[in-house]
Structures are given as C-alpha cells and as structure tokens.
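Re: your question from the hallway

Yes, I did run it. Sequences:
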Amino acid sequence: MDSVPLFPEQATAHAEQVDALFFFLLLVSGFFIALIAGLLVYFSIKYRRRSDADRPAATASSLKLELTWFLIPLPIALFIYIWGAQLYFSWARPPDDCMEIYVVGKQWMWKFQHLRGQREINELHVSVDQPVKLTMISQDVIHSFFVPAFRIHQDVLPGRYTTVWFQATKPGKYHLFCSQYCGTDHSRMVGTVIVMEKRDFEIWLAAGGDGSMAAEGRKLFQKLQCVTCHSADARARAPVLEDLFGAAVHLKDGRTVQADDGYLRESILDPDAKIVAGFQSIMPSYKGLIDEEEIAQLTAFIKSLRPGQTPRRNEEAEPPLALPIPRKTP
Amino acid sequence: MSANHSSLAHHFADHEQQHEVAVLGMWVFLATELMVFGALFAGYAVYRAQYPAEFAAGSRALNIWFGGINTVVLLSSSLTMALGVHGAQVGRRNVAVMCLALTALLGTAFLVIKGFEYHGDYVEHLVPGLSFSDQDWLGREPHVHPEKVKLFLFFYYTMTGLHGVHLLIGIVFMTVLTILAWRGRFTPQYYGPIEVGGLYWHFVDVVWLFLLPLLYLIGPR
Amino acid sequence: MSTATLQPPSEESRPAPMEVNYLDVEYGVKSWLLTTDHKRIALLYLISITIMFFLGGAFIAVVRTHLLTPSGALLDADTYNKFFTMHGIIMVFFFLIPAVPAVLGNFLLPMMIGAKDLAFPRLNLLSWYLYMFGAAFTLWAVLSGGVDTGWTFYTPYSTASSHTNVIPAALGIFITGFSSILTGLNFIVTTHRMRAPGLTWFRLPLMVWSLYATSIIMLLGTPVLACTILLLAIERTLGIGIFDPALGGDPILFQHLFWFYSHPAVYIMILPGMGVISEVIPCFSRKNIYGYSFVAFSSVAIAVFGFLVWGHHMFVAGQSVFAAMVFSLLSYLVAIPSAIKVFTWTATLYKGSIAFDTPMLYAFGFIAMFTVGGLTGLFLAALGLNVHVHDTYFVIAHFHFIMVGGMVMAYMSGLHFWWPKMTGRMYPEGWGRLAALIIFVGFVLTFLPQFVVGYLGMPRRSHHYAPEFQVLNVMSTAGASILSVGYVLPLVYLIWSLGYGKLAGPNPWKATGLEWQTPSPPPPDNFAVTPTVTEAPYQYAKGVNVVG
Amino acid sequence: MSHMTQPDRYVLVFLALLALTAATVGLTYVDLGAWHSIVGLTIAAAKALLIVLFFMHLFRSKSVIWVIALSGLFWLGILLILTLTDYATRSWLTY
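Structure:
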C-alpha cells in the first residue's frame, strides 16, 4: 500500500449504496457550508465598520423568512432520514440464501466456525457473490465487528446473539476491526476477511475440516447425554428436536416463540426460562459446562435434524466429561 | 418592613421574594430527585417485563405487613409535617415544635421497622451479595430462576435503600428545624425552611407510596 | 446619539467612580474560599477549569504524539488506554460541562437580569466545592494508576473486566454531577424570581435563555447519570447488578441510561456557547439579533428535543431496529432548531457595522465550525450511514467540531468579551487576534483529516492502526501542535493583562446589556441602584442603554 | 370545604390516605390477574395526588410550580417510554 487512500474500497453492493448517500450528504453539506461561509465573508466585507459612530438601523425580522428556513431544512432532513432508514433495513435483514458462519469474539481475538467444520482465528474466508450471515456472540465484554470495505458494523454482545450479513463482490483481502473499545489489546483485535473466487473457496472449504459443525454437535449431543431425554421414542421426557429450528414453539405459560439461534442458546443455558407446553422443568442448566463455540455446534446440529435423524439412545455414547448436577426436583 | 431583618438575605428585596425563591428551589430540586429514582424505575420496568415470574416470586417473599405498617407510619408523619408547617405559618410555635419533632420520630420509626425487615430478610437468605443461597431459594420456589430473583431483590434493596437514605436526610433536616423552631427562629413571615422541609418530606413519602405496589404487591399471594 | 448615551441616566445617583469593586472589597485566601459572591465564585471556577483544561490537554498531547506512527512506539497499550480515558473524563465532566455555565454564567446571569446575586449564594459556593471534591477524586484515580474504560464506562467492561480505578473516577463524576445540578437549580430559580423590574421574559438577553435551557438539562439529566454510576459502582464492588449478562442483566440498559444523560449533556456544552455567540454577534455588528423569539425558543426546543434522541449512539449496539428508527427521526428534528440559530446569526450581520475584535473572530470561527459539526451530525444520524462510521474517527471529528470548534471557541469568545468586565482590564487585542487565528488553523488541520481517516474505517480508541492511515494521522498531530500553541498564548497574555492591560472602563464594547451599565469590575452588589428595564435587548440602533 | 380549617382538611386527607392504604394491602389477597399491578399503581397515584395537591399545597400554588411538577413527570415519561420502546420492539424484526 504505497499510495495514501482517501476513500475506502467498495467490496459490496451495500457499500456502493452507503457511499451514494454519503456523497449526497456531502453535496448538501457542501451547499450549506458554502452558503454560510459565503454570506459570512460577503457581509464581513460589505458591512465592515467604517466609523466608530456607525449606528445601523434595526432590522425587523420577517416571519416569512423565519418560516422559510424552518421549512426548507425539514423536508431535506426527512428525505435523508428515509434514505438512511432504508439502507439500515437492508443491513439488518439478511436474505434467505445466506451461508451461515458462527463468530465468537473474545479479548482479543475473533473466532470463526464454518458449518462445514473449518475454524479460523482472525481470518475469515468467504466466497465472492455469496451472501454470508454471521451469528455473533462475545465471551466477555462488548466487541464490534467492523469491515470498512463492506460498510458493515455490528456490536457483538455477551449473552445474546447479534447478526450481520454481507455479500462481497470483489475478491481480495479486507480489514476487519473491533471498533468497540474492549480493553488492553483492543486495537490488536483485528483480522482479515479474505474474499475468494467461488472455486477457490470450495477447495479451501473442502481442505481443512475434521467434520462439520453439525457432526461436532452430534458428538456433543451424545457426550452430554442430551439424547437421554431428547430421544425420539416413546420414553422421551423432553421435546423432540427434529425439524424444530424455525418452527413456532408453544410454551407452558401460553406464549409462543420462534425457535431461532437465541432460543436454542437460552434453552441450553437456562432451560427453565421457556418451558415447552406439556413438559416438566427437569433439564439442568449447562451454563459454565460448555462454551459459546460448543453451543453453536449443538445449535448447528439441531438445525440439521430432520425427522428420524435423532441418534438412538442405545447408540454407543462416550461417558460425559462433566455431568451437570441435576437440580433438585420438586 | 420587617422587624426581623437578620432573616432576610441581602440579595432579596423582601420576605415574600425570599419565601418564593425557597419554595421554587425545592420544587425544582424534587424534579431532579424524581429523575434519580427514575433511572431505577426504568431498570425495574425493563427487567420486570422480561422476567415476570421471578419478580412476582421475589415479591411474594417479602412481608407485606412490614410494608403496610410502614406506609401508615409514613403517612402519619406526612400529616404531622403538614400540621407543623401550618403551625409555623400561623405562628403557633409549640404546635410547630411538637409536630416537627413527631415527624422526625415517625421517620425514625419507619427506619427502625425497615431495619427489622432487612434483618428478617438476612436471616431468610434473601440478600444477594450478603446472604443468598440458591438452594434455599429453590426450596422455596423451585420453578423460579434464582439468578433473576436476585435481580428483583437487587432492585428491592437499591430502591428501598435509596429511599431510606433520603429519609435519613429528612430526619436530620427535621431535627435541625425542630431545634431552630424551639429557639423561636421562625415567624409567620419567615418560615420558608419549614415549608421547604415539608415539601421534601412529602416527596420522600410519595416515593414510598409507589415502592409499595412495585415491590410488595406484584401479584396475589 | 454618541458614545455618551451609553452612560446610564442614573449616573448622578451613583457613588463616586472610585467605589469599591468585588475584587477589592476583601482580601486574603479566606475571603475567596468562603465567598458567596457569584462573581468571585465564577473566578474560582475559572481557575479550576483552566487547570483541568490544560491537564486534559496534556493527556491528549501525549496521545496524539503517540499516534504519529502506526505501531505506536511511545506508550504501551494500557497506558494509552488510560490516557485517552483521562482526556475524555476530564474534558467532558470537568471542562466542557462546567466551562460556560459555571464561569461565564455564574458571573453574568445575575448581572444580566439586574440582580445582586444568584438566588442561593451559599449553594453556589457548595457547587464549587463539590466540583473540586469531584475533581480531587478523579485526580486520585489518575495518580493511583489511572482508569482505562473510556469516558463512556461501558459495561460489562467497566464492571467485570477492567482492572483499573473505575470506582474513584466514577465517584468523581458522581460528585461533580451534584455540582452541576445545584448550578442548574440556582440558575432556574434566579431567572424566575430575581429579574429586575420591567425585565420580562422577552426582554431577557439570549444568553439568559440559553443558560435557562442548559439548566433544564442539568437538572433532569444529571440525576439519571448519578444513579447509573451508583448502579455501576454497586455492580463492580459487590458483584450483583443489572448490567452484566453473566448476572442476568443487559449491557444495553447501561447504554440507554448513560446516553439519556450524556447525549443531552452535549447540549449542556453547546447551548451556553450559543448564548455567548448570540451576545457577541449583535454587539460587534451593532445590530439587534435577527428573530429574537426564534432564537430564544430554539434554545428551549433544543433542551427538550435533546432528551429524545439518545438512542442514536446505539444504532449498532443491538437495540431494536424500530427503536433505532424512532431515535433517528427525532435526531433529524433536533437539527432544525440548531439550523435556525445559524441562519439567524448570519442574518444578524446583514446591514450591520461589523468590527473584527477577538470575540467576534472567535464567533465567526464558532459559526463555521458549528456548521460543519452540525452537518456531519446529519451523516451520523442517517441510520445506514451510521452503521459504517459508528465508533470511527469520523465520530471523533464530528463531536470535536461541535465541542472544540464550537464550544471552546464560544468560551474563548465569551472570555475575551467579558474579560474587561471581570477584571477591569483589556487584553492585548493584537495577541488576541493572533491566537484566534492560530486556534482556527490548528483546529481545522487537526480534525478535518480525522473525518477522512474515519470514513476510511479507523476505529476510535486505537492504540495502533493500519499503516495506510498514517499520513492523515500525522497531519492531525501537526494540527494539534499548532492548536496547543494557540491555547497557551491566551493563558499568557490574559494573565499579563491582569497587571498591565489598559483600563477597560464600564463599557469598552459599547454593548447594551445590563452588565455593561455598571463599573468594571463591578461592585459587590453589582448595581448601585437596581435597574429598571423598559425595552427589549440589543437596541444597538438607538445607541442608548436599556436602563430606564 | 371552604368553611373547614386547614388542619381539619389535613386530617380528612389523612383519613382518605389510610383508607387507600387499606385497599392496597387488601389487594394482596385478591387475584386480579394482569390488572393487579395496574390497580395497585392507580391507588398509589391517587394517594400521591392527594399528598402533592394538599400536603404540598400544589393546589393553591402558582402556575410555575405546576409547570415544574409536570415537567418532572414528563421527563420521567421520556425516560421510561423511550427505553421501553427498545425492549418492547426487539422481537419485531428477528433474523
């Protein structure tokens, strides 16, 4: 990088749209700055004090003029607002055909998990022209996922998933920053987003990978003895998880919620928060027993579960490493 | 104009201006105070909406009778306060002194009762940070998440604690006023401090009136 | 219609010109530390905030030097983090918020409304002590190792992760908050009940209107911050609380409560500055302010609307999309009254008789910088665009244009404008103009590159940065060094003028406000005779004063 | 009430407050479902109003005092409503 860039690269269609608004605003501001500065200079020269005895007559204010400069900025402001809001929506709402990647931020690194199993730290490989949705969570304090070339930005919170999506249009390497101050090495919490050609990405994806996230999740599902209760047979003491993701879940207290990433995570860590109608509160909390990456693996597994795919209980399962202490039942 | 010039500060034109300034100042201050509690109310509202069951359960664990009796004590103190202001206004010194003293006393009674209540909570392991055990709580209400009950209890102690601090300041305020009134410092022309003290006292009372349903009465028992 | 008309008619009834002034009435340290005279308290504040300003400036001088190279060789990461935090805390809470209200406001409010003092003089002194007490806590936090949370104290970093002195720093802010509350209370009551006979609301100088609006924010915003800090301290010390997800809480709630105060606080900083400009522009263009009532009401409108927009600090923080849209819309509405003010000041110059004394130069600087700062605010309030520039140097540049380019310029303007009134001496005009010019150039060079580097994507609070950002950072640092010269210069010549400046006389600028109708420095009770007001302010055309 | 002396009026207000307190405590033993809190807070508001109007003399105060009292409430409303706007609408757009 020899030259000094004055403008960030545009590597998504969204970036171009954001820049369009940016340039429009530059135009509007340029106009008003020129207007005010021009008037200041003009008045300063034209009406400079020529004699200390000058007593210019008072000017009565004109209501028309006052209303004019009240009413002219208003529609301009509203226009900008609507434009900005529309961009915000397209930033906030990912398309349906997204490739999903799970992101864990921690002091001071970014960890990525691809559904196919690859894991990366501070480097994120994606394919060009492929919409990508990041489901992000922090293990400690608030971080912020910021890729200037994509014009996207999203705080990464502890305890709750946030998402952001992008569709890169240009292969290349782009800066990834943490922009929310997070402690000592905040400014070392940086990385690179590597956008590859589709074919190269497929090769990269196929290379690493010791099993997909869902497969890892399946192992956990058996290791943690989840299958003991969440079995798909007559002895099931807990809801069947097949085809659960995205479905509406009726709760004991009458509410209905959608089974999304956040719901699954909460149900693993805090099972009593939302008890499914027709079931008892018997599941222990797994808080402190599995980390965010493992939760994401379990979630990926549950997402992949189709009817008949729940592991059988008599399947050979490794003994759990650390069994959660079951809570006293009433 | 006034016989008692020492009670008029140099920068005021007359006693009426001085009195109005004092009253206005206190009202403005009370608007500020409202926002202090406002931050707590906002936090309370956010978490109560998120964890209704835990807040109801936490509320059930509190003793409504302590809350009820204390309300009566505080309301009585408000009555004596109002009568005290009136006494000072019409120049009945003895009434004013009696009522102010009684107000301070009732305020103290409130704090003593509150102290017993806190002690009871401590014994029953209801004080997060000092004495709280998840096991005890689960024995009490097994289906309610102790972590979130702690949130409720946190609001309970912060709100009543902040209210208690305000009351304590009020009691000191009243004690000083009682002594000054007893020494004959106030006249029907100059009783601004008593009126202002009264406004403060009533405000602290009003805050409690809202804490009662918010903390003790979330759901039926 | 000459200068003589500026002498009040009550001249005869006034004691001899050699009468005692507020500076000479008593001597000794005790007479200052126990004073209840609003003018003396204003000077106490002046000294304290000047010290804090240069302290905060020293921190950022080191930070900017550090940022000369991408790898940041000067400071290690922890020290760097502490330095920008201390810069933020000191500048925001101990300089920007109290500067104009506590120094100029304290000095001028009673004089502008023809009162002998503020409504609660002892409370006023207490505010200063609270300020000093808060400052002492903060300095203790600095000396015992510093604090590294950023001035925003975001949870859970500040409660669960930082190993620095969060509690003393937070307590310092908590205590200073009460200083701010008491000042606001004093101003509001004074404006309501202490006005001179005939001084109706629409005859008040615009400075008084903006101080009134500022006080509303101080009174109703600060307590929320105080309570939030209290909750933060409880959570950090006792490990129970409501902001940490590990405890069942929500960090976004902290941001809501924090910005509920800290966004309006921006208007605490800028509104009194607008008041200063509304006094200076009419005086140096010898015109009545254009559209008085619009300016007056826009101050109050800014104070009220300022409370409705805090969520625009949280567009990418994880708040709901709907709430973000509401906050963005409201943010655009608050831009309108600010725009009206800029138009109004410009229109006031029309057909005026414009002189270019130092206060006026700063006022021009203010209008220019505030316009840029305000317009870049439109960029930040635009939701989709905010997503890109959030937490970058673009934001830094924007709010420094408002705070430093706007508020500090207004403060300098006011300080020079009323310096003769406060001290009885003129500052050296040539040096004043030179310093104003240096500050203007240094400022623009410091912060204009930051817009560019921000849009490029340089995150704020960076200990080191990508190499391609270096050129712009070097420019910024070069500007900052010019700026620092510009700030030291007034310190030198203003102190010099105390002993050697030429005597000012009661009204060196031939201005119309009540404060100019009394000797400089003023007598302890401000006016020998309580003035009676019969006219609207800024009657420059008549060349007569407003004292009847 | 104009023929009453001021202290008589205070006692009357006090009795009304006691009655409302009894109602509040009694509320504990009735199941009103979702209305429980609303009724409880309404009673509290009624009591507060009695105290503010009569004990604090707002009833016969100048308009500026009314303005201050109401702006206190107004700002409290801003804080509560805009904060809750976020929490109440987080589920409106889920991804």
